[in-house]
Amino acid sequence: MTRPQDIPSLRHSPYHSLLMLDILYKDHQLIVLNKPPGTAVQPDKTGDVPLQAQAESYCRQPLHLAHRLDRPVSGVVVFAKTKSAMAALTEQFRGRSVVKTYLAVVQNMPPTTEGTLVHFLRKNEAKNISVVTTESDSRAERAELRYRLVGSSERYHLLEIELITGRHHQIRAQLAAIGCPIKGDVKYGFRRGNRDRSIHLHAWKLAFRHPVSGEEINLVAKPAASDPVWSALLDSD
Questions:
Q1: Which of 27, 70, 137, 237 is catalytic?
Q2: Catalytic: 70?
Q3: pTM to 2 decimal places
């Protein structure tokens, strides 16, 4: 893990004490990070230093974001160091050859221990949410994921999710639609937010082909060990 003092251009930043990079993979083409919950990937209206700025300071060069995670979500984020690497990764994401696996904590047991969910989602720009609608809605996009129950504690259940499509807030909206909103996700119906405004959704694994060598890259990002909910559920797995 890279410490704040290892990021030269951020040494004198007002966010200096908050910065830390958990690097999962790096070479001349890529850098892959385990994003903590609550950190924006790119600049937003809060003015908080985003993950991309931290990564660019560490790499000492501009980076290209290959995909996004919502601010309250944690886990794997890939940045490309070159335009050609970015183009190759974009093609893989567009062609759905990238395998994306998430972990989600829910309070309600899903109707079956494993299954496939298919919904049609329409983004509400004003509220920054996605709502489940009908196939006939011209603004709707088809959303598909697979899930399975992998652990339980006295209060919560741990779901492993393979994302088939990549829609706005897809996992959050689809789990809420079956009565299983993610812990802390008040935007999608969970009763109480987490103190740090995170939600218990984690981009756990990512598998793709290296944009230059073609080698298969399989990455795993661990959820925060300091979080007792993640720890209890992963220990019970």
A1: 70
A2: yes
A3: 0.89
